[in-house]
Amino acid sequence: MQNSHSISRIAILISGSGSNLQAIIDHQKLHSDLYEIALVISNKADAYGLVRAQKANIPTMVIEHTHYNDRESFDAKLQQALEEAKIDFIVLAGFMRILTKGFTQHFLGKMINIHPSLLPKYTGLHTHQRALDSSDKEHGLSIHFVTPELDNGPVILQAVVKIDPNETETSLREKVHQQEHIAYPIVIEWFALGRLSFKDNQAWLDQKRLIQPQVLSKTII
């Protein structure tokens, strides 16, 4: 889908406030020669992320999942919107929908997600509380390619935060959010530069297979 002679067109899918979207918008302003945020799609009409996009003059679209009888018909509409916008790369930023196998296969290698845990630990929801309940010393985030199995695609980059003795779910979530806002734009930039790819069901960076994910504190940007 990507044209090497033009800047990458990315779409960002959201369901809520869009704090990661804002971090990406801010990054793109400094790297407008690399990629364009061509479309922001929300499955909820009241998502504040839509306001963030509109303030930045980014085209937005609402595709409410409640208007569709099943996941397949919703995903078909979503796929149609992305293809009509000639999107090169899809970024899930707090998009609270489980996508169908057909949709993820169609965009395999062209779609990433950010998950608030150090995968493979704590797939699914309530990751911060689960880390606290397990008395973990560390927690963090993972950015991964999206594959048909939930939260199981190859991990590209992780960021680690320490869990303090007096940590709460709220304080831990905030720590992870701060790292998300740094990490997500880095991975998008890697794709836009042609450094990041997906082949043989694995993540590759600079034409080397990532046997272990990159770690944010050690990343050479």
What strand order characterises the main sheet? 3-2-1-4-5-6-7-11
**Beta-strand segment tally:** 11
Radius of gyration from CA coordinates: 17 Å
Overall pLDDT:
95
Q: Which outline best applies?
A: globular
How many helices? 6
Count of distinct structural domains: 2
**CATH C-level label of the largest domain:** Alpha Beta
The structure class reads alpha/beta
Oligomer: single chain
Helix content: 25-40%
Termini separation: 25 Å
Low-confidence stretches at least 5 residues in length (pLDDT < 50)?
1-5
CATH architecture of the largest domain: 3-Layer(aba) Sandwich
Describe this structure in words.
The protein has 221 residues and is of the alpha/beta class. The chain has 2 domains: 1-107, Rossmann fold, CATH 3.40.50; 115-221, Rossmann fold (3-Layer(aba) Sandwich). Helix content is 32%, strand content 25%. The protein has 6 helices and 11 strands. The chain has helices at residues 19-30, 48-55, 71-84, 101-106, 127-133, 169-192; strands at residues 8-14, 35-42, 60-62, 89-92, 111-115, 138-145, 155-162, 196-199, 202-205, 208-209, 214-215. The strands form 2 sheets. An 8-stranded mixed sheet has the order 3-2-1-4-5-6-7-11, covered by helices on one side. A 3-stranded antiparallel sheet has the order 8-9-10. Helix 1 (19-30) packs parallel to helix 6 (169-192). The longest helix has 24 residues, at 169-192. It is globular, with a radius of gyration of 17 Å. Residues 1-5 have low confidence and may be disordered.
